[in-house]
Design brief:
heterodimer; A: alpha/beta; Transcription Regulator spoIIAA; 4 helices; 48% helix; B: alpha+beta; Heat Shock Protein 90; 5-stranded antiparallel β-sheet; 5 helices; 5 strands; 23% strand; Anti-sigma_ant (chain A); STAS_dom (chain A); Anti-sigma factor antagonist (chain A); STAS_dom_sf (chain A); anti-sigma factor antagonist activity (chain A)
């Protein structure tokens, strides 16, 4: 399996949407990401969780889309979490200052954990 | 031009589907020079950010190319990303280029993040706008630091291999 190939796997569980983001999330992958994840972001009835353990590349394109999702979910008052962030992705989150927003969300993910 | 510099050039259409080719090329050249995994990952993001700006802003939907020039010298790798388009407004972006740290969520705008990342991840960033935009990103080799240093391939040996 090509580690770089961008893939999304949507796992709709009874109590939440989980989206596994795999490979390289770059400008070429942006449209596919938005097409899949935006409708889920609009569903306030369930928490939305992005799982990043197999994400091998991200830049400001992907970070920007995560921040946009966070804003959407925040406006809807709906839980949102980003989980299993690989170290090199975490580093970019830290550098750009978005870790702060995503760590706030991790409180939400604990709540999600409590519900499941 | 500096002496003992090896140049590799690559031109791609200003289309996002070719950006992975840029990262693969960069990876190959930087690994040959002995840069660490982390340094290479940093450069991949910085170079992609410069290319993203060309794809999104340079040609206004018309077709055009991105010209990349990898300048490998004994102590540094410089990557020059050039287009012949109307140009990304780097002056304006420079004013916005900042970390989002400490801002309230509703005030967060991701517009300046690309340039911010280029500056944070590279040792030197120079932008020239004249008949298009030219971004020059440089990463110095920090010899003697880190365990990878003894595995460095000298530029002359790279030349011999080429």
């Amino acid at each position: 399996m090509d580690q770089k190939q961008f893939r999304l796997v949507h796992d709709e569980q009874p109590d939440r949407h989980v989206v596994y983001i795999k490979g390289e999330l770059d400008l070429a992958a942006a449209e596919q990401f938005q097409r899949t994840v935006e409708p889920l972001a609009g569903d306030a009835s369930k928490p939305l969780v992005l799982r990043l353990e197999d994400l091998t590349y991200i830049d400001s394109t992907g970070i920007g889309m995560f921040v946009a999702l966070l804003k959407t979910r925040h406006q809807l008052g709906a839980p949102f979490a980003i989980e299993n962030v690989p170290p090199k992705v975490r580093r970019l989150f830290d550098l750009t200052g978005v870790s702060y927003f995503f760590s706030e969300m991790n409180d939400a993910s604990e709540r999600i954990g409590g519900q499941s | 031009m500096k002496e003992h510099e090896t140049i590799v050039q690559l031109s791609i259409p200003a289309d996002a589907q070719f950006l992975d080719i840029v990262r693969l090329t960069l990876y190959g050249l930087a690994a040959k020079m002995g840069f660490s995994y982390e340094e290479i990952e940093d450069m991949k993001v910085a170079v992609s950010e410069a290319c993203n700006n060309v794809v999104l802003h340079a040609y206004n939907g018309r077709s055009g190319d991105i010209h990349l020039r990898f300048e490998m010298s004994a102590d540094a790798l410089s990557i020059v990303i050039k287009d012949e388009g109307k140009g990304f407004d780097y002056k304006r972006a420079t004013k916005q280029a900042a970390s989002l740290s400490g801002k309230p969520l509703q005030d967060v705008k991701v517009g300046g993040l690309g340039l911010f990342l280029m500056k944070a991840l590279m040792d030197d960033v120079r932008v020239t706008t004249k008949g298009g935009t030219e971004v020059r990103l440089t990463k110095f080799r920090h010899r003697g630091e880190g365990e990878h240093a003894h595995e460095c391939i000298s530029p002359s040996s790279v030349q011999e291999q080429a």
